[in-house]
Amino acid sequence: MNKNLKIIFNQPANSWDEALPIGNGKLGAMVYGTIRREILQLNEDSIWSGGPMERINPDAKKYLPRIRELILKGEVKEAEKLALYALTATPPSQGHYEPLGYLYLDFNVKDDKVEKYKRELDLERAVAKVSFEIDGVKYEREYFASYPDNVIVARLKCSKEKGISFSAVLRREKEKYVDRCGHIGDDTIFIEVFNGGSQGLSFCGMVKAFSRDGKVYSIGETLFVEDATEAVLLISSATTYRHSDYFEHTIDTLMKAAQKGYDKLYKDHLADYTLLFNRVDFHLESDDKNKHELPTPERLKRLQEGEIDLGLIPLYFQFGRYLLISSSRPGSLPANLQGIWNKDMLPPWDSKYTININTEMNYWPAEICNLSECHLPLFDLIEKMRQRGSKTAKEMYGCRGFCAHHNTDIWGDTEPQDVYLPATHWPMGAAWLCLHIWEHYEYTGDTEFLKSHYETMKEAALFLLDYMVEDKNGYLVTCPSLSPENTYILPNGDRCSLTYGPTMDIQIITALFNKVIKASEILNLDFDFAKKLKEALAKLPPVKIGKYGQIQEWIEDYEEAEPGHRHISHLFGLYPESQITKEKTPELFEAAKKTLARRLSFGSGHTGWSRAWIICFFARLKDGEMAYKNILELLRKSTLPNLLDNHPPFQIDGNFGATAGIAEMLLQSHNGIIEILPALPPEWKNGYIKGLKARGGHTIDIEWENGELKKLAITPGFTKKVVIKYKDKVAQLDFEESKSAFVFDSSLEIIN
Q: Where would one find coiled-coil regions in this protein (predicted)?
């Protein structure tokens, strides 16, 4: 493994943006590493405001025909006015994600005499560490979030015997929003909250301490450790979302973890984490061997000043994998807009699941970066959405199947969100999410998984069959819909968002229908339904090229109100889908290049996640130089000191999208071809990546030298016939029943 995978600071965090994230899927913490008052900002993934709500507008179905009529006649402003009244949910908004709170550790030390301070996040061990000296005495703190034991563990050590004394208290924002607090016995403190709403969540957070030689006791809501050489804190939390006996469950969790002791907790954590993390190893050779020892903010600053730091690329890539492991594990909720790390009682965009790109982007690296297990929480949420979305489809639109709009929450809410015309009335969220079901199958070959989720894909397709109407040209189109968050200008000067048959919708429908058809063939069922999908596919409008040589975003070649918009939805067919390729659709491929160039010329990519999507686009366009340029732009302009993505403010999707983009630069596997180093930048002269996954379940190791493939190793997956491509070389292979790795040279000749 690359041994230089640490995010490093030489001072405590001055703000949340400099703190270090740890997590186990359910529990998360941001470690500040402050001296006298250490701060851990804490999260639990199911702490959300309110509860499930019924928000379907009872007048939606009544006014839908009129809204459609107005849009198809070109009277869009009138349609939008009516839609705001009739299609907006009642109430308009879902609940939001909330923090658990803060753990404050107050130490009896002098922070004006600190020497040799270091704070780091070790990605190989998933451990955050703080160390410093005061008057010759060394203090060390280590933090990790254990998935096997569902606790956050903090170990505090001192080189001086019995040299540690501190108090600990759990609080929420401004010392408010807590209904009950206190201590349980001598060694545990707690907070408890009874949230509002007719079915609001209640929850608790607890901290338990133990020490070999120190005194542990509690007074009121405060926990004390005195005269210890080493002390361990265990932190856990539970809510009524999972446990009706959440308080007793948390006590039991902490007791079991304490009985194991620190060494066993750490051993089990490390074994669990490295099983996932160590699957992929990525290295770029650099002339400067020592930059990895510099503080990470300094490395970013030097990058902004024009220095080269190739070592930052694997660090950032692996940080994305680390974040996915830390925020999305089997049994947890999916990673939300901030993963699991959120300090605000009312966070930006509610820190929900925004499903017009952001949630999907969170999971773009899951399969290719060999973390299929981390994908599973998303499918659990989709199943909840299917139940809610069936009612939404029926009562809002009079349709069968299920649908969702541009946001959801932990209860699988599927109604329109917000009162915002450029985003609210978009019924494609479920369809896009269901494409992840197929993607998981493509990488794992798990037919039982596909079978168990087939009906979900089918119902998303069934909704669209019912929802689409014929336009003036006889094409089947969605109506009403929109191109996410963007606005166009009608010839009369009106600025509008609602439309029919936007390009992204057509591309999503094409993808979903084709994948349901393939699933039907694999599972040997539902042939009549597959036939209906094929008939509908033949009636979809084509993707068009507009007056600027660009792919049209809308069914008409409207002017854009914001040509540099952050969403580039009409290139969905380029990435994450593979409908637009140089081989299959050369004209659209060239138009995609012009689309991207035009967007960038007007300033697109100004948000972190948008820049990440642009990296993925250039990877698919086989333009390694531009992909790398946009990685540098992401690091220079949209990356916080702790390497978290900056929208601004923080959103985690940019981390995940860029990680997926880097993987796509080195390996692509769509349309039946595994392509090696399709977008290798000239600057990445020598390096290797081991453990990436290709569709078909193949594990790929790639080594290159002087910009050319040196060695390729493939461990066969579940598909036996494989086509491999490197530049103009193509090899067709039949792995038969072999499970051992095949090694190839640069000519794709087998050398083992």
A: none
